[in-house]
Amino acid sequence: MNEQTKKLLVMDVDSTLIEEEVIDLLGDEAGVGDEIARVTAAAMRGEIDFKAALRDRVALLEGLPDDIFEKVYSRVHFTNGAKALIKAAHQRGWKVGVVSGGFHEIVDKLAQEVALDYVLCNHLAVKAGKLTGKTDGPVVDKILKLNTIKKWAELNHLTLSDVIALGDGANDLPMIQAAGVGIAFCAKPAVQKGAPHLLNTRDLMKVLEIVDQLADE
Fold first, then answer.
1. Interval 172-192 mean pLDDT
2. Is the pTM above the cut of 0.85?
3. Quick check: is 67 catalytic?
4. Is 168 among the catalytic positions?
5. Which of 30, 67, 100, 212 sits in a 20 to 30 Å window from 55, CA-based?
6. Pick the catalytic residue: 14, 24, 168, 172?
7. CATH code of 43's domain
8. What's the domain count of the chain?
């Protein structure tokens, strides 16, 4: 493979870039972790509408102090190979972004740590130092994820064929299917069934093996 070939690598965050689901961690802090986790799992499997699931889960966080983000961030772990993949992608001249149904309040810290080029997530509304139980701005759902990879590709004078997209949930499937290299990463069954490529080992560096193998074919 020509390592100077320009690409755009876009990842989901929760259960892909990181091991955890941040909304579940926030739920733990609010004392409703089990309830939120059940809704998260159903949404990731595509059994319920993502926007409705997000609204219902975020509502349960009402009243949490905004210093909760520091506590939750301390509980987050990058997936094996995540930092190495991002470093290698940048060395190849690629841009790297994340688009997530998670939250800027956590993901921005992750992005700074690994020098991501692009970030799009949801914002949790805060008033008087407490979460309101609502989000601010457009909800990052499957359509916005798809439109975002198109936008970022255009910004870099690339086409969707130059995009590598990976994620694990139903919300990620449209962008995975649209990308030149679309990868279901340790994904839910419906995503595995619909994705062009599967990676079921929790090592993100193996993404490069898939990309390079396809380039050599």
1. 97
2. yes
3. no
4. no
5. 67
6. 14
7. 3.40.50.1000
8. 1
